[in-house]
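Replying to the earlier thread about multi-chain prediction with a worked example.

Input:
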Amino acid sequence: DIQMTQSPSSLSASVGDRVTITCRASQSISSYLNWYQQKPGKAPKLLIYAASSLQSGVPSRFSGSGSGTDFTLTISSLQPEDFATYYCQQSYSTPPTFGPGTKVDIK
Amino acid sequence: EVQLVQSGAEVKKPGESLKISCKGSGYSFTSYWIGWVRQMPGKGLEWMGIIYPGDSDTRYGPSFQGQVTISADKSISTAYLQWSSLKASDTAMYYCARHSNDVDDYWGQGTLVTVSS
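Result:
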């Protein structure tokens, strides 16, 4: 299985901050990388697919980049509704594996 | 509107059997894979397996092969996840998700399974 890591595991930030989360794959996954947001008690929500494509309806302050083994999710200006846990997922090979998550909370 | 609606929370005893469901609507149910994802209390997301309702082709993650059974009834647009003998370690939230072009784009609301004696 392809192993996914994320850093940091948690971060504290203020409304309006620029936030960057990193995801690394244990082998090259081309651009088969997705990002999900999960709020407490809710199902995950797709934000970014194929490393950099914004899912319909997702605010443009979210962006993704990277290819191969290293990927980044950026929130350009953190909003109150963005406090959540973010997961990356590789869909290059079965089983698709998730990173351990990055919890973004209020400073 | 695409929707996946899961069955309600369950409380079971160790050794009991269970089948939970995920009903799709608003799209062609037989044309998309449906996957199941486990989230243990306070933990991350784990991919369990996936089924193509059109022909019931099913794949399992290595950790879940032999531990659960995934099935679907295309006549009622419903996918299932079942256990024959539950363990306390099966206590978790279980999500179904529609799988399209290498992403899980729509998710059910989750089914909480609690296994306790």
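The CA atoms of residues 12 and 115 of chain B lie 5 Å apart.

Feel free to reuse this layout for your own posts.
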